[in-house]
Design brief:
Distance between the termini: 13 Å
CATH superfamily: Aldolase class I
Number of strands: 8
Number of helices: 11
Low-confidence stretches: none
CATH architecture: Alpha-Beta Barrel
CATH class: Alpha Beta
Number of domains: 1
Length: about 240
């Protein structure tokens, strides 16, 4: 299983003072030393944490793979097209949200996928960029993603993260969605709200080939350092796969 570390919230700390530290690029390099298979960053339209310069420096510096999360804003799609990261993951954005609150709405009830999303997918795939869609773990979203011709989906694990102590239903939804996505020819990723306490049941789902984890690792790094935080998470994920 690939393990990507999201370093957005290193930039969040930096932007609290509008200074030059801590540097998310330096943090990403440390994550790689500790066993991360790739780095994820989200360039939001409001530039609340990661900035354009961070994206360019990250691409030029890291030795593994860059997963760039983005919405369909023209300037960000153009940056991704020019830069050609290993992977671009489309996510929904709302200005007032604290963090991404759910997957992309690809349902027929809403009129089908946003034409801007279709255009952005075609633009990036035409540039040779691997495209993933961040979706809720439901059958309709998986079917629509497959119809859009993307290579991968990232299953939103927020419901599981919020409810795992009380019920197995969200985990069962993830397990079923992972099977459906793989059967549809999609690579299966997962992320959002995963922590040291809840990651292993998700990591044990055999169809999932990539996890994206950020906030919990950055939080842990305040106490133990980022390399130790990444190593601890890497070990939990590996143990879950062995089990």
């Amino acid at each position: 299983m690939r393990f990507f570390v999201n370093v957005d919230h290193v930039a969040t700390v930096r932007q609290a003072r509008r200074t030059d530290e801590p540097d998310p690029v330096a943090a990403a390099v440390a994550c790689e030393r500790a066993g991360a298979d790739g780095i994820t960053i989200h360039l939001r339209e409001d530039r609340r944490h990661i900035l354009d310069d961070d994206v360019m420096r990250m691409y030029a510096t890291i030795a593994t793979h860059l997963n760039l999360e983005l919405a369909t804003a023209d300037d960000i799609v153009k940056l991704a097209t020019d830069l050609k990261p290993h992977q671009a993951t489309f996510v929904p954005e709302r200005r007032e949200e604290i963090t991404t609150e759910g997957g992309l709405d690809l349902t027929v009830d809403s009129g089908g996928p946003d034409p801007r999303l279709k255009h952005a997918i075609a633009t990036l795939r035409g540039a040779g960029v691997r495209v993933s869609l961040f979706i809720d773990p439901d059958k309709t979203s998986i079917q629509r993603a497959a119809e859009l011709g993307v290579e991968a989906v990232e299953l939103h694990t927020g419901e599981y993260a919020n409810q795992y102590r009380d019920t197995n239903v969200p985990l069962e939804r993830l397990q079923e969605a992972a099977k459906l996505a793989e059967a549809a020819g999609l690579a299966v990723h997962a992320g959002h709200g995963l922590t040291y306490r809840n990651v292993q049941p998700v990591a044990a789902i055999p169809e999932i080939e990539e996890l994206n984890i950020g906030h919990s690792i950055v939080s842990r790094s305040i106490m133990v350092g980022i390399e130790s935080a990444v190593s601890e998470m890497r070990a939990l994920i590996a143990a879950a796969r062995v089990d």
